[in-house]
Amino acid sequence: MFKKILIANRGEIACRVIKTARKMGIATVAVYSDVDAGALHVKLADEGVHIGPAPSNQSYLVMDTILDAIRKSGADAVHPGYGFLSENAEFARALEREGVAFVGPPVGAISAMGDKISSKKLAAEAGVSTVPGHMGLITDAHEASKISREIGYPVMIKASAGGGGKGMRIAWNDVEAQEGFQSSKNEASASFGDDRIFIEKFVTQPRHIEIQVLGDKHGTVLYLGERECSIQRRNQKVIEEAPSPFLDTETRNAMGEQAVVLAKAVGYHSAGTVEFIVDGARNFYFLEMNTRLQVEHPVTELITGVDLVEQMIRVAAGEKLSFGQADVKLNGWAIESRLYAEDPYRNFLPSIGRLSRYRPPLEGKRADGTIVRNDTGVFEGGEISMYYDPMVAKLCSWAPDRLAAIDTMSRALDDFEVEGVGHNLPFLSAVMQHDRFRSGDINTSFIQEEFPDGFHGVVPDAKSSCTLAAVAALINHSIQRRAVRISGTIGNHRRIIKRDWVVKIGEKLFEIDFEASPEGGTVRFTDNAVNIGSIWTPGQRHAVFHVDGDPIGVKVSIVGTGIRLRWQGIDIVAYVREPRVAQLAALMLFKQPADTSKMLLCPMPGIITHVAVKEGDEVEPGQAIAAVEAMKMENTLRAERRGKVRRVVAIVGQSLAVDELIMEFE
Hints:
Rossmann fold; 8-stranded antiparallel beta barrel
């Protein structure tokens, strides 16, 4: 067995590998860029080696620098994680020349499957069902639109060396094909150093289902069930689960067997994933093979009990798999939610900054037998950088059945506290409560179909409003009780906490009577009553409230005279006032926000990569007018309405903060 493993990666996956290596008694080496010197993976590893400046193409993607780190540390094996050099065949060859083990597949498999074009051809030759498309190289945008017309819209434009949603665009017409080709080419070049593009038919209403394979160097290849990865945004997976709620046993076995055939065709060993697109009739088509550990591997581990990282290490050391296909059993249900540093209220644009508060839910087995797991690479006080992927953590839940796993995830999301950066916790919570998701009626267009105008938060229904009004009433009582203890009496009169209050939730007003008790109190509304209890104390940012006996986790903060409450994707400010004060508050005027309708503001911190217009130009609705690159993704900014450019402020290459001015219109 290896004595020391260098992890050629960063963030949560580096931490994940370190966890298993430590369990196996293997020393670990972290590599880090300038901005990662204080990162969690560096703190957890036994030693660390600095590899260069913050940009990944000057540090984590530089093979010679990584090889120098291996020599300095004396590591006898390298785990590449995912992304960066994980599917770089030349890197694997370089390790062979150094006499260092690569904890991954053979070079030939990486080469064959890493190129999306050649992998399609190889899959077809092996008898694996494939999607129709053009596998040849495409030279320019006009050729891209011509080929797209021949295939038939809609089409998927993809980077040959792509992965993680980078370099992918869906096109429905010639204009989108030409724009998508150029954007995909730019992203592919920046992310992978390879700008080759191919085009294939886009299957409408598709489900993205992948098969986990695992092989050793002695000819054994197994499949460990499937993962459903259909909840995606901009081709980037957001929520995954295992198994799929859509597959039956026959389809699962057929997909698994084809995945094994393909893996054997390229002499595969180690962990890998064969991805398929599945239509509504359960016809499945090969999409690509990822010759590495997948981001969503924890859900497979939770339902199979197999530590995939451990198996990768053992296979790399030459060991045989200790179990066979018949030993692989799928137990229960697991869900993974990717927590991203992105603002769901601003069309999920990336967010950077310091994590002023980071409190994940408690991990491990719970009293009801469910399990919560959180794979992360950050800590409270750490920085979310603009240089890398915005994923903060992967929160996972396990339960005996799907609905129980969803409910476990929902509670865990409510208990997850993140402050300092924009994040998608409210959106993840909203999906967990969505009837369509809970029913399993999902496809890769779920987010686009259910949130066509973006995510604007969850509007509480009558029951949720009543629940939050009761929570606000108890919080108000706790604040009032504290004030009484501090001030005691006024003159000869002892302060008394009143029972009659008006709670304002959005536009809803609740006239309540709050009857206190040692455990909390009873909130009487006009037509019903709610018993509520909690140990919440002023200043506490999160607490469990028992509403008619049911526990709910609510995030609490005081905002002026209001109480901000966040629960199940709802984010509201409740006002608890005396009746007369409530009457006066209703007469108050609200300040109107500044008019920015004639300005194009930078929606995220990033670098201007393209300005498509100049002063005096007329623009049409939907016209591309600029592009901003942030966290390895190029974002096209479009005109919202017809207008004339008054002045252009930003220039290509300029780094802008959120809401900095790019251009103005007349």
